[in-house]
Write a structure and sequence with these properties.
Layout lengths: L1 H4 L7 H10 L4 H4 L31 E7 L2 E6 L6 E8 L2 E4 L5 H15 L9 E2 L2 E2 L1 E4 L9 E5 L4 E3 L19 H13 L4 E3 L8 H23 L4 H7 L12 H16 L8
Parallel strand pairs: 9-10
Antiparallel strand pairs: 1-2, 2-3, 3-4, 5-6, 7-8, 8-9
Helix pairs in contact: 5-6, 6-8
């Protein structure tokens, strides 16, 4: 895969596989990535969970909006429930990141075909004269994170790890604090103007800088309160948020859950002053 994808250390590996399944690509396309062969026979008898996104969603708001040139952003859902990913349209086909729900993936495939008159393709990722880079990053939102950058458009897909003046989701599901900060440091080093976070609205590097500050501050506050010997019932009441953070999307719904996630991460490693 290194030759084909130029892998470096929000689109996860799961997302790649989701895209392949959602668009039902023929085997000959899947085999042309030029990477290392994978023996799929060992997965033949694995348990497959039901597709909880398979139900029809005819009334779900969705669309494809242009970001710049041939780069677009697909969305589905409304408000805090919006899900998004980047779409690159080329003369040789379309490259789609994270089509999300099955019903949305089908709509997206048909919409791209009718609107741009190209089919969704997945090959070694140099398509129609455009180059897309995949970057493996540190364990953060999960331990299999891959970011996708579009250097020609200074755009980055950073699903779930990045935020758009919005609170991290719930109690930090699949949470690796150190790797999350490392990944945000990596994002801030990239030459990008547009960052799609997989939800809400696109973000900027300044948004990610603000997120990094928030994460470090929350970690330090929880650590200090645990060192003071505070129980959970005391601790969550004493964490303070900046006036700017209080304006972020999802603040009322997520602030206590964010504290809980950080508390679970810190508490096994710190017991009082020692």
């Amino acid at each position: 895969m290194e030759k084909a994808f130029r892998m470096c250390r929000p689109f996860t590996l799961t997302t790649i596989l989701t895209a392949l399944v959602a668009f039902s690509l023929p085997p000959n396309l899947r085999a042309q990535d030029g990477g290392e062969p994978v023996d799929l026979s060992r997965y033949a008898n694995r348990q497959v969970l039901p597709d909880f996104t398979a139900a029809p969603c005819p009334d779900n708001p969705r669309g494809i909006t242009q970001i710049k040139g041939n780069l677009y952003r697909h969305t589905t859902g409304a408000g805090l429930a919006v899900h998004s990913g980047l779409v690159l349209i080329t003369k040789d086909g379309a490259l789609v990141i994270d089509p999300a729900m099955t019903c949305t993936a089908g709509w997206l495939r048909d919409e791209i075909n009718s609107r741009f008159h190209v089919k969704v393709k997945y090959v070694a990722i140099t398509l129609g004269g455009e180059t897309v880079l995949l970057h493996r990053v540190a364990a953060s939102h999960s331990n299999s994170m891959v970011m996708v950058s579009f250097p020609g458009y200074k755009a980055l897909q950073c699903t779930d790890v990045c935020e758009s003046r919005s609170m991290p989701y719930s109690d930090f599901l699949d949470f690796y604090y150190d790797g999350w900060i490392e990944t945000l440091d990596w994002v801030l080093q990239q030459d990008v103007d547009v960052i799609d976070v997989g939800h809400y609205t696109p973000a900027t590097k300044e948004d990610e800088r603000a997120l990094r500050t928030y994460m470090i501050d929350l970690h330090q506050q929880v650590l200090d309160l645990i060192r003071q010997g505070q129980s959970w019932d005391e601790l969550y009441r004493n964490v303070r948020f900046s006036d700017e953070t209080k304006k972020w999307a999802g603040y009322d719904q997520m602030r206590v859950l964010n504290i809980l996630g950080m508390y679970r991460r810190v508490s096994p490693h710190r017991r009082g002053e020692w």
